[in-house]
Every structure is written in C-alpha cells, then in structure tokens.
Design brief:
Elements lengths: L2 H6 L2 H13 L2 H7 L17 H26 L3 H14 L8 H15 L1 H16 L5 H19 L2 H11 L11 H40 L7 H15 L2 H12 L3
Helix pairs in contact: 5-6, 5-10, 7-8, 8-10, 9-10, 10-11
C-alpha cells in the first residue's frame, strides 16, 4: 500500500485489516494483498553533473564557514581584549563567580558588535550588497570583505608583531595593506593579548593597594587570624561602586580601539 493511503486510514480500519490478515490463511493473504516489488538500479545518466558537484562544494564550504564563525568572531575582532579585561576585573575584585561567565561573554559580545559596527557596515556596502545584486563575483566579494577587517586589525597591531610573522612567513610586503591574513591575524592576536594584560595589570593596582592597607591594619591590631579578604572585599566593592567602575572600564575599553 501507499504510505499516504495508510496515513488517511482510521486506526480502527487498520486494526480490522490486521485481524483479517491473521484470520485468513497465508495463501489467501498473499492473493488478497499484492506487495509491489522494489527495484534498486543505478542509471549512469543520473550521476551528478559538474553543476551539481559545484553546488555541493558550495554547501560544504558554507557549512565549514559556519563552523569557523565562532573562531572568526573571537580572534579577528575586539572580543578577545574585552573578555580578558573583564575577567581580570572579576579576579581583581576577588569575585570568582560574580558576574557569571554568561554575563561577561554576553557583555563582551554586545561591546564587540558596538565597536565593530563601522567595519560591518563597510563589509555590507562594499562586499555583501554588490554580491547579492550580482555586480561582483564571490572572489571579489571575499577580497572586499577582508579589506576592512585587515585595516581594523592593523590599526590595533604593533609593527613589531607584524614584522615577526612576516619574517617567519618569509613575506616582504611594500605596504601593510598587502600583507595576507595569515600574517595579520596571528600578529593581531598576540598584540591584543599584550594590550589586554596591560589593562588588567592597571585594574589590579588599586585593589592591590586596598589589600595591602587592610593587611597592615589587621596586623597592627593583632588580628592575624582574620583573613584580609573578609574586610577588603566590602571595601573594594564600595570603591568600585563609588567611582562608577563599570562605566570607567567600558569607556576605557571602547576608547582603546580608537572609536
């Protein structure tokens, strides 16, 4: 029977057919129900044509790009610096679980979208829209999309790091804009790590001073058995709230990218 016909039968009708089949002898059932034969064959003419193969390659490339999208967002944007600085801030406050990882990552993502918005706009106007309107091909679109990202990364990258990976790759470029992404991306990553650690060190200094003052006061009072963190934590939170710490940190992060 056709599967669509079975789906239209009521359940009671199906049950009656089953009971009828069990009551009748096997030859009678074989004569009553005719089972269609299923034949499997391979027609040489049905082999995928080059156009279909090209479409399959495009689908595979799109799936690979989607799987690499998180790495692209993490390493080719300002996300790395932001999430590391916010993690240093949480450690400086001696609050290992507050804010949670979800809050830190979410705030880092939204700040990344805010800072990278001019870059996304250039990619949309110079690469995505012309490609969707069939004014440029895919190779030209990729080249136009990579140009704003390369310029953004080079603005944040130390020349020393670019020279390092240029020498390792044995590439000599007349201008930084001619450097391939395989040189620009790792140079940008280590520069972002260096900058993030510098900002984290500056965040630790005021809280470290509070820890030292609290430890010295407890030592002078003879309260050596009392953990300094018990007293310093409320003082650090009070200082952070009074100076509007979140606004200062976010403002410093955004301005550090020159936006």
């Amino acid at each position: 029977m056709n599967r669509s016909l079975l789906n239209r039968f009521p359940v009671g009708m199906l049950a009656m057919l089953v009971l009828l089949g069990t009551a009748l002898p096997l030859p009678a059932v074989a004569q009553t129900l005719s089972i269609p034969a299923v034949k499997l064959s391979m027609d040489p003419g049905s082999i995928t044509q080059p156009a279909e193969i090209d479409g399959a390659i495009k689908v595979l490339f799109a799936m690979t790009l989607l799987s690499l999208a998180p790495s692209i967002v993490l390493l080719m944007t300002c996300f790395t610096r932001i999430v590391i600085v916010l993690s240093f801030l949480r450690s400086a406050l001696t609050l290992p679980g507050t804010p949670s990882n979800q809050v830190i990552i979410g705030l880092s993502l939204f700040l990344t979208f805010f800072i990278m918005e001019p870059v996304w706009s250039r990619i949309d106007s110079n690469a995505l829209q012309p490609y969707m309107e069939h004014r440029i091909d895919g190779e030209r679109a990729m080249s136009e999309a990579a140009r704003p990202i390369r310029e953004f990364m080079l603005r944040q990258t130390r020349p020393k790091d670019v020279e390092l990976f240029g020498e390792l790759a044995k590439i000599s470029a007349t201008s930084p804009g001619d450097l391939p992404l395989k040189v620009v991306i790792p140079a940008f990553i280590i520069s972002e790590l260096r900058t993030a650690f510098q900002m984290g060190f500056l965040l630790f200094l005021p809280f470290l001073l509070i820890e030292m003052v609290v430890s010295a006061v407890l030592m002078s009072l003879g309260m050596m058995m009392m953990p300094p963190a018990t007293v310093s934590l409320p003082l650090k939170l009070l200082l952070f709230v009074l100076v509007d710490g979140w606004q200062l940190v976010v403002r410093s992060l955004v301005l550090s990218f020159g936006t």
